[in-house]
Automatic annotation (TrEMBL):
This is Pseudouridine-5'-phosphate glycosidase. The lineage of its organism: Eukaryota, Metazoa, Ecdysozoa, Arthropoda, Hexapoda. GO terms for molecular function: hydrolase activity, acting on glycosyl bonds; metal ion binding; pseudouridylate synthase activity. One of its GO terms (cellular component) is cytoplasm. The keyword Transferase does not apply. It comes from the Eukaryota.
Amino acid sequence: MSCLLRVTSRVQLARSLSITRRYSVQPFVYSDEVRDAKADGKPIVALESTIITHGMPYPRNLETALEVEDIIRRQGATPATIAILKGQLTIGLTQEKIQYLAKARGVIKTSRRDIAAVVAAKRDGATTVAGTIIASELADIPVFVTGGIGGVHREGEDTLDVSADLTELGRSKTLVVCSGVKSILDIGRTLEYLETQGVTVCSFGESEEFPAFYTTRSGYKAPFCVQNSSQAAQILMAAHRLQLSSGILVAVPIPDEHAMDGNLIETVIKNALVEANNQGIRGKEVTPFLLAAVSAATGGASLAANIALIKNNAKVGADIAVQFQKLRN
Ligand code: PSU
Ligand code: MN
């Protein structure tokens, strides 16, 4: 009896060891560039891919993605654009892979709820801010740059359309650099929700106001203001030391010369919202629909603003990553 038990437990032990081994293989792959940066302890900046597949049209999406990566390199950091390719979570994309994504059709916009399904089906997935935060955490990349994050949609108190970006920020150790949230969203409620989630929201630079993506002003004050990259890196360091595991959002206003007229953008957004409603656009389609409608209605001016701000954010984010790496070493 005791022998049988021992045999059984040995079999069980062997089984559980092989399961552990199977699961302990890294669930993602690095590009050579990112793997080398990791090995050398160099600063790395994560980048999302939904902006490439669903946020901008071809070929501006491709040009922008490559330029943003180069800006990060010039600041002394390594870019890691993140996506799921044929089911493989990939951290750092070669130029060829970015090119493929920029042109590909049928890529799935991948937020937290979509990741496991996309991986299991071996599909292509472009990670949203939420999806990219998850990957950054797995790979221990603490700084992530984007243009705008998702938020609480207008009338979100009825529809419950609240982006998973906000809950993900609430449970991550990542610092996300963005230009605030677009006024296609309810900015006030988005800030309330970020507070509930415990996210440290900071405006970047002179202004204490939370920026509204296309414009530098939203009418809402950010709870904190950081003057420069070094201050942002210090907040990230404090959050890590305290093991807070709730994220930091650094909101960099669009450079003045690229900012749009607030009244114009408000009118365009109101029309786009009516159109989305008329066409019955729902769920994850809402954000890409509104982005495309706003771009069409402004004759591409909003796209130009979007490109300008993300390049500026890349510079700031890379600098924060460089400063943070110094504090870490
Ligand atoms: N806002 C933008 N550009 C974008 C997005 C938002 O100005 O490309 C994308 C980001 O990937 C963001 C996602 O994470 O949309 C949010 O989508 P949703 O609202 O469905 O959560
Ligand atoms: Mn939504």
